[in-house]
Amino acid sequence: MTIQIDAKRDSYDVVVIGSGLGGLTAAALLAQTGRSVLVVERHNRLGGYAHSFSRKRQVFDSAVHLIAGAELSDTGHPSMLPLLLDSLGVADRCAFHRLDLLYRAAFPGLTVDVPTGPDFLDVHARLFPREKLGLRRLQRLSTQLAREVMRTPPDLPPGELRAAGLPLSHEYRHRTAGSVFDDHLRDPRLKALLGTLWPYLGVPPSKAGFDTWAPMLMNYVDLGVYYCAGSFQNLVNAIGSGLTDAGGELLLKTTVRRILVQDGRIGGVVLDNGQRIRAETVISNADPVQTCAELIGTPGVDTAYLRSLRAMRPSLSAAVAFLSTDMDLEQLDIAHETFLYDEWDHDVVFQKMVKGEVPALAVTVPTLSDPTLSRNARHLVTLSTLLPYDAVESWRDNKSRYERLLLDKLEQVIPGINDHIDFIEGGTPRTMERYTLNLRGAIYGWEHSPEQSGTDRMPHRGPVDGLYFSGHWTQPGGGVLTVVSSGIQTAELVAGHAVFAPDFQRVVPLRRYGSKG
């Protein structure tokens, strides 16, 4: 993979702003069609929230903890990622470790190890035997809806779901996951246990769109969970290699200062060094408010469109801590991923988070799967909790306080670890904003509420001909596989035809719309 510090030419077919997995996937697929593609990234590494960083000979993932479906599946639920890597010719450039557990859930009075596959239902049914039939019905519905979501064409108008042969997507379009849980289950503790993964969406089941919840959960259950060997930067770099192998270009430590609009359509971009790049297509993997209001502005973007963007709700941000310890965590029966909750009621937990409290914690120990991440014979631990951007007046003044809150909570998962920490580095919502320029440090783009999920989420086509959006702000939503899917959809809209692996087309017969702009 070749990284550049200057653009080689002054004209490209496609310019992609930001190298998050959505934009990078779109860029690589479009380069394979023979288009000239330039990706412009302001950071010194590719990947957005999927990038990793090194401290003291230790490698930390900035945000991604695990992914679903890194290997081909025979469940009938297709694994998109390995087919994409194979299609790009880079399947041999990253490897994955399969994990035994999806997660460990720790609630007051109950800790449960939750696996994937058929055992997922069995574990819940053993704990709540009277709910077994309802569990089966809910899992069957979730799987069916997940498969509909996979074959939903990009930018399909919500009113056309039923006509497109997607009846469940139509029926559950405005339903929350919590309300669907209520249709099938009675025990509030079972509902809470099924809702353990809600921090991956940013809102609890009572506020999360079911058409986003079902694919997220069933991808993990049906396809298994994996950690990328050497960190998820290797997955990012593999897709980046697919781009450069096809003739595309990567430009790091460079910022797009302006998107040019000429005669009502995209004309190119201006870089921070003053270079003007002509392009008829621009794909923004960046915050759409920044893209439209700052990089284009009025009159290029209609004021009504800008008002509609500003009326949407971004997701919460997060406080994180990255640490290393000399404790032998392998001997302590620690899971790769643990979710700790002070309360059974996820709505109470969420409201406390909104107030700036820390009633829940996600604990990730990637070195249990990949010891090579640390060259110092240490285990690495990542802590994270959701928080709003405005939880405090000054994150600089409160950063160390939140690190302490996270570490105190960690003691409930790994007692005594605070006496064995030899490195720690924290991050706050301000950190998220600074590195990504995401509105209010949002970690999932727009909030995954029903009115901002599924086909109601922001479409890929922008308000100017030739402008497209990709990544977690757009359909289908946040999460690694989801933003990769977003990149595939964006590439197909730009190209006006299928750009992905034929094997995937046979498994999931996507319906497509032609390109516009």
TrEMBL record:
Keywords: FAD, Flavoprotein, Isomerase, Membrane, NAD, NADP, Signal, Transmembrane, Transmembrane helix. One of its GO terms (molecular function) is oxidoreductase activity. InterPro entries: Amino_oxidase (IPR002937), FAD/NAD-bd_sf (IPR036188), Retinol_saturase (IPR052206). Residues 21-494 form the Amine oxidase domain. The keyword Transport does not apply. The chain crosses the membrane at residues 12-31. This is Prolycopene isomerase. It comes from Nocardia tenerifensis.
